[in-house]
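Re: the 205-residue chain
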Amino acid sequence: MPAQLRCRDLRAGDILLKVSDGSLISRAIQMGQSLSGGLNPHVVHAGVMFDSTYVIEAQGSGVTAHDLRVQNRGYGYCVYRCTNPSMAQGSGTCAKMMFDIHQRGGNLGYGLSGAIGSLLGTSGRPATPGEMDTLLDRILAGRNHQFFCSQLVVYVYQFVAEQCGVAAGTLFNFADAKVPPSTLAASLQGHPAFAEAGYLLANER
């Protein structure tokens, strides 16, 4: 049975799946995912841990970092952990790099239209290593690119997987831009490269 976690139990690269908190935005996302046939419509957001307290996430202001003990204290999460420590650490570092880039140039805004479009299905192949490298080069050069929450998580993990010698498609066999939070949640359940580490209750850190 999954264990209740505290911040001290979290690690870099942990994937946090936010459970609906009943807010208007959460209810709208949940309804959209339900209407599109999502298996886990109550999972409404996703992020990647940089360390044991800061989660990197794509939301209204773009790629941001929030302290789970302060800004995100009132949210509950399911926590999944990559079983490859190098890939997990690399994904935490890559997510933090995206945050740093956005802080410098403001070029990684939130992709609301992409988030809505992702509800239409998961068709589409994973990006090739060359396509991922090209996108990262464009981002590093200050070009604008929008991410929504679960898209950022999938892109980061697919990119780092390739750096670790694991084909992106064998980790997540879908295009990052086609993955709403509910689909990411479904893919993590029983995934051989991830384990359910436990859960964080709202206001208990």
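The longest strand covers residues 43-49.
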